[in-house]
Amino acid sequence: MDDPSSPGSGRITPVILSGGAGTRLWPLSRRARPKQMLDLTGGGSMLALTAARVADAALFAAPVVVAGAGQAEAIEAALPGVGTLILEPAPRNTAPAIALAALAAARDEVLLVLPSDHLVRDGAGFAAAVRRALPFAREGWIVTFGMKAERPETGYGYIERGEALAQGVFEAARFVEKPDAATAQAFVAGGGHDWNAGIFLMRAGTYLEALEAHAPQIFEAVTKGAFAASPAQSIDYAVMEKAERVAVVPAAIGWSDIGSFGALHIVSDQDERGNVVAGPGLAIDARGCLIRSEGPLVAAIGVEDLVIVATADAVLVVPRAESQRVREAVAALEAKGREELL
Fold first, then answer.
1. pTM for this model (two decimals)
2. What is the mean pLDDT of residues 123-145?
3. Containing domain of residue 279, as a range?
């Protein structure tokens, strides 16, 4: 097996993307306190948990964090002595953000790109998947990691596995964006599709070559120091759906993007009635509820499948199955210029 600690092999450089705002978790998540800065699972901030996941010095070098210009102080507080902090002049999505990290690296340096706000319960399994992918990344493949599709989730993208390249490594045959319920059900039943977690392993030079070939406007803007002029595109759209040598490593490692309060309910410890209570709260004859308060006592009586979140200045109540609709509240607050978003 490829040993990253052997002479001349070089360790993997983690690239932690921390530019998101996580508005689907409003009112907990705000512009000044985005999702990755929150302790959602009781183990510390999502950013700190992500950094801990790549702390094995035998496998990983010091991380590079790519973040928005206004997040510098918060990141330095969450990660004292962070390896390298690259600040984006403007938010332009993941493809340009990753390019900043790739340009700062040596061409043969292997980068592990990962979001700052995802949950991985099996750290050892995560490291094993990275080691399995490493030889292919060194050979010029862009490797993505497919998370086991545990339910017909319509809020995630999927990766279809193609031909096997090695034990536990496949060509990525196709990327599918957020399918409808029937298609998602067929994917889960068929067993040949995995959730797209947005985690990638590749040489810096491999990524820049693919970006130049498939998204030249992004490549030109970033390499010429005109980052704000770059199109705002995800790596999936700009590169992954178009590149030739793309592999997928399936992994069952307890992953969640915690992209909604519904997802947070799934990954949290529940009582015998399926309730999750964090902070001052009471669930009386309630079932399937997520109750979270940062201030006032919240008492939920005789209700089912609700999300109730209270902060010092806002209260959210939404059916758990419709928790993705929090973005509608955010949009309404933005239209009104309300300070509860700040």
1. 0.93
2. 98
3. 261-341
* Strand pairing class (281-284; 315-319): unpaired
Of the residues 256, 276, 305, the one at which a domain ends: 256
| Residue 215: count of CB within 10 angstroms of its CB | 23
Q: Are strands 142-148 and 193-203 parallel, antiparallel or unpaired?
A: antiparallel
187: amino acid identity, one letter: F
Give the residue-averaged pLDDT of 314-338.
Answer: 94
pLDDT at residue number 107 = 97
pLDDT in tens, 264-299: 999 999 999 999 999 999 999 999 999 999 999 999
Q: Determine contact, residues 108/203, Cβ cutoff 8 Å.
A: yes
pLDDT in tens, 18-44: 987 668 899 999 988 899 999 999 999
Cα(37)–Cα(29) distance, rounded to whole angstroms?
8
What's the per-residue H, E or C state across 74-133?
HHHHHCCCCCEEEEECCCCCHHHHHHHHHHHCCCCCEEEEEECCCEECCHHHHHHHHHHH
Q: What secondary structure letter does DSSP report for 228? A: G
Question: Tokens for 257?
Answer: 């993007």
Question: Nearest-CA neighbor of 82 among 90, 92, 71, 93?
Answer: 71
Do 274 and 217 belong to one domain?
A: no
Burial classification of residue 71, based on how many CB atoms lie within 10 Å of its CB (0-12 exposed, 13-18 middle, 19 or more buried): buried
Single out the residue in 240, 256, 272 at which a domain terminates. Answer: 256
* Separation CA 282–CA 237 (nearest Å): 44
pLDDT value at 312 more than 50: yes
For residue 122 the two structure tokens come to 């099996």
Contact between residue 281 and residue 297 where contact means Cβ atoms under 8 Å apart:
yes
pLDDT in tens, 155-177: 899 999 999 999 999 999 999 99
DSSP state of 15: E
Structural domain count, the chain:
2
Q: Is the peptide bond before 34 cis (omega within 30 degrees of 0)?
A: no
Please tell me the distance from the alpha carbon of residue 336 to that of residue 56, in angstroms, as a whole number. 46
